[in-house]
Write a structure and sequence with these properties.
Elements lengths: L7 H32 L7 H49 L13 H41 L4 E5 L4 E4 L1 H7 L11 H5 L3 H13 L8 E5 L2 E15 L6 E12 L1 H35 L9 H31 L8 E3 L1 H11 L1 H6 L3 E5 L8 E3 L1 H17 L6 E9 L4 E8 L30 H11 L3 E7 L3 E9 L1
Parallel strand pairs: 7-9
Antiparallel strand pairs: 1-2, 1-5, 3-4, 4-5, 6-8, 9-10, 10-12, 11-12
GO molecular function, one term: ATP binding
Organism: Phocaeicola plebeius
EC number: 2.7.13.3
Length: 488
């Protein structure tokens, strides 16, 4: 009996019909033989052969029915299970991106229709996949072209620190080959590459921020300087709104030309400052001789001129000193000579250096110092005293006449650190400029007090060279408080 041309419903109906017919046949045969046997006398000579004949018929027909039933029960599930299994295997191939799979199901019109629809779907998926893959490959080549056209070294990393992309400049600087780095762990490659190790360590330590100090690299047979910048790669998450970090980009900007110009500028300023100190000192000595009473008395007009010469000479001397300090910091030649120093000694030095200026403007200097014993500092006392002197001088200059200025010290952070501070009650500093005032040559807009704009910058450099911090707290109309914190 062939079932391949039937649908599943017809197959099940036929099987059940055949099984029912065989059961009916057996029952009918048994009933007919039973009636024949009951109609025959038990003592009759025909009773024995009739019984045997009935048993043979029932046995033969029953065996044939059982064999047919077993055959149908075996063949029916197989005929149903086989196309289902083929369909499941085809779906699995599609799930594994094998779009070339085709089905040829047999066993009924509906299975043939399923095969046609499945094969049509596979063809369309294959066409879509090929077109999408082609677009992706084109986009990938386009992006690689853009990245390689960038003249600055650039490296892309995923969250697992595997290298996603790297341009020719970066390969040249790192002395690596593309086939040895793409999709490889940057941390593993860094074990045998010093420069990459510095970049990876910087990414972990800097936390995605711009590295302040330039990186010196020997490239193209010369020393080059690069500014390292770390940027996050972010993409929309599953909700399409929340941005999720997918990796980092390391960008090295070549600043060799600017570094050379900056070095030339520093050398020029240092040379000019040294050259200016000699004539300024000569002017100060000549002025001192001119004002000596033993030479002769000056009339009021001459005395006013001499005072003006002294003030401007002292200002020039102060500026040249600041410039020299700045060049020491920028050239890396700043040398610290630390020694054990009491904070009160530094405060007293700053007060003494600014006493004349304070008396000139009628400023009262108040000292806040704890009665309990305060720790000592291991610092270059000359440079920290210069910082306090500069802060106190600024406080006096920016305070109104006949006001007060506070200078003090305290122990903080479980007596592990010492803070020294200078507070004035002048017009204060706009919060917008709290960071800018520590930059070279910056002066708050509208400031009428004369200055070079270097004092605070040099002060912060001196403090940070000791591993400390210099911060400001200020509000418009409430004055300012500059605080330097150092380890006790």
């Amino acid at each position: 009996m062939k079932m391949n041309g039937m649908n599943i419903k017809a197959k099940i109906a036929l099987t059940i019909g055949v099984l029912v017919s065989m059961i009916v046949l057996l029952v009918a045969l048994s009933v007919a033989n039973l009636q024949i046997l009951t109609a025959t006398e038990p003592d009759s000579p025909a009773a024995g052969p009739g019984l045997n004949r009935a048993l043979i018929w029932i046995t033969v027909i029953g065996g044939i029915c059982i064999l047919i039933g077993i055959g149908m029960l075996i063949k029916l599930p197989a005929s149903i299970n086989s196309p289902i299994k083929q369909l499941a295997d085809g779906i699995l191939e599609i799930a594994n991106h094998n779009y070339d799979v085709t089905l040829n199901l047999k066993g009924g019109e509906e299975l043939v229709e399923v095969s046609k629809n499945f094969n049509r779907m596979a063809r369309r998926l294959n066409e879509y996949h090929n077109s999408t893959l082609s677009d992706l490959m084109a986009s990938k080549r386009y992006m690689e072209t853009i990245i390689n056209s960038i003249n600055e070294p650039i490296i892309g990393l995923d969250n697992e620190m595997n290298i996603l992309f790297i341009n020719h400049e970066a390969l040249n600087v790192l002395n690596l080959k593309r086939e040895n780095v793409i999709r490889k762990s940057a941390q593993e490659i860094a074990m045998s590459n010093d420069l990459l190790r510095r970049l990876v360590r910087g990414l972990i330590e800097e936390g995605g921020k711009v590295k302040k100090e330039p990186l010196k690299i020997y490239a193209d047979n010369k020393e080059s300087y690069f500014q390292v910048k770390y940027m996050d790669i972010t993409m929309p998450g599953k909700d399409g709104v929340t941005m999720e970090k997918r990796g980092n980009v390391v960008l090295l900007k070549n600043i060799t030309e600017f570094q050379e110009l900056d070095t030339a500028k520093t050398t020029f300023i240092s040379t000019i400052s040294h050259e200016l100190k000699t004539p300024i000192s000569a002017i100060m000595m000549s002025l001192q001789l001119l004002e000596d009473k033993r030479v002769g008395h000056l009339n009021p007009e001459q005395e006013e001129l001499s005072n003006s010469i002294r003030e401007n000479s002292e200002r020039l001397l102060s500026i040249t000193g600041e410039l020299l300090n700045m060049t020491q910091v920028e050239s890396g030649k700043l040398q610290l000579k630390p020694k054990i120093t009491k904070p009160i000694e530094l405060i007293e030095y700053a007060i003494k250096a600014n006493r004349v200026q304070a008396e000139k403007f009628g400023i009262q200097i108040e000292v806040e110092y704890p009665e309990d014993k305060i720790g000592k500092l291991f610092v270059d006392s000359e440079k920290i005293a210069w910082v306090l002197t500069n802060l106190l001088s600024n406080a006096i200059r920016y305070s109104s006449e006949n006001s007060r200025v506070i200078i003090g010290a305290r122990q903080v952070n479980g007596n592990k650190e010492i803070e020294m501070y200078v507070r004035d009650f002048g017009k204060g500093i706009d919060p917008r400029y709290h960071n800018s005032i520590f930059e070279h040559y910056f002066r708050v807009p509208g400031t009428k007090v004369q200055g070079s704009g270097l004092g605070l910058s040099i002060s912060r450099d001196f403090v940070e060279a000791h591993g400390g911090t210099l911060t400001v707290e200020s509000e418009i109309g409430k004055g300012s408080c500059f605080t330097l914190r150092l380890k006790a």
